[in-house]
Amino acid sequence: MSDKTDCLMIVDDEADFRSSVREHFERRGYDVLEAADGEEALKQYAEHQRRIELVITDIAMSPMAGEELIRVLRSRNSLLPIIGITGFADIQAKLSTLGEGAYYFIDKPLLEHHWPFFDRMVENAIKLHQREQEVEAFRATERNIARMLRSYILQRPLETSTLRAEPALVQVPSDKPSGDYVEVFHRSRDELLFYVADATGHKDLLPAFTACLSNMVLHRVHHGRRPTVKEIIQEIDQAVEDLRKAGVFEHSRNQSLTFFIGCLNLTSGRMTYVNAGHLPAFRLRGSGEKVAVKHLKNTSLAVGQAALLEKEIKEGSVQLKPGDLLFLYSDGVTASLAEADECDHSPAVVERLAELVTPLAAEPVQTVVDRVMAHLERRVGDAGFEDDTSLLAIRLHRAT
Fold first, then answer.
1. By mean pLDDT, which of 111-115, 245-249, 390-394 is the weakest?
2. Cα separation, 182 vs 171, whole angstroms
3. For residue 226, what are the domain limits?
4. Does residue 176 sit in the same domain as residue 95?
5. pTM assigned to the model
6. CB contact set of 320 (below 8 Å; sequence gap of 6+)
7. Which of 82, 115, 113 is nearest to 96 (CA)?
C-alpha cells in the first residue's frame, strides 16, 4: 500500500483491461486516471501533470501508438516513469518501448501470478520518480543560488584608476549530472580573477565538488598575499592528488578538472593565465572585417593529472587593450556545435566557434553571450543541451 495518495494513469484501448487495472490499484490506495488512446492520455496529462507520478500504457494502440505517446511524454517530462504493456511474444515491441524511454514493460494478458510483480514495479517506479524530483529540486535550488551569487558579483564592479573590466556570463544546465563552474570577481582594486572549470567522473557531486575544491584553494592559498594563477592551479592539482591518495577517486585517468584561470591586471592590461586541459579561450581585437583572434591554448595538463604524471604547470600571458574581448566557454558549447561524427574538442569545432564569435567582437558584452547562446539553442532544438553549457565574456574599457 502506498503511504500517500499517489496518482497513476492507465492508457489502453481495451475498456475491460483498463477497468481491471484501475480497480486493482484503487484498492491499493492509488488514484487512477484512465485514457482510451494516446490523444486522450495527452489531454489527461496536460490537465493533471502535477499529480501524475506514473503512466502505464499499451503499445499497440491507434491512432497514436504507445511508442509515440512515450516519446511525447518524455519530451514534456524527462523524469516521468512509464511502463509499457505489450503481448508476451512481442520482443521487438518490448525493445522499442524501452528504447523510447519506458521504465519497464509488463506482459499481456495479466495472469494472477503477475500482479505481485506488477505491484512492486509500480511502487518502485513511483519511488524512483519522487527521488528524482527531490534531486532535481535540490539542483534547481543550487542553480538559483549560483545565479544570485554571480549576479551579485557581476553587478558590483570595483572602480579602478586605469582600466575597467565588464563581464557577462550565461549558464544553461543540462538534465545530466555535470560539473561546469564559472566565477569572476575582483580580488583587489587592480586585479580581476576569473575561471571556467569543468569536472568529469564524479556523477551527482560534480557542481559541489568543483565549487568547493576551487573556492577552498582560492581562499587557502592567500596566506595574506596574492598567489599567481600558476600557484593556484598547483595547489588545486595537489589537492586533487591528495584526495586521490585518500581513496576518493577510484579511476584517476577518468576523473579530472579542466580549468582555465586568468588574472587581469587593471592597471597594465596584462593577463596571466593557466589553461589546464581546457578548451582554448579567445582574445578578440578589432571590429568588422578587421578582427584578430588569438587562441589561448593549453599550458598544462588537466588538474589532477599534472601531479599524478609529474608534469610541470606552465603559465601564459597576453596583453589586452581597451576594447579587447575575452571569450571563455565550456565543452557543452562545442558539443552543441559538433556534427554527429566530430569530436567536440577538435580544432575544427573550436574554429567554428571562433568564426561564430568573431562578427560579434565589437558588440556589447552581454549581446555577445546572448547571441552565441541563441545560436546554440537553435542548434540543439527540442533535444536540449547534452552537457552544461557555460559562456563568459569580458570586455576591457578605459576607466571613466
1. 245-249
2. 9
3. 159-398
4. no
5. 0.63
6. 264, 269, 270, 271, 283, 326, 396
7. 82
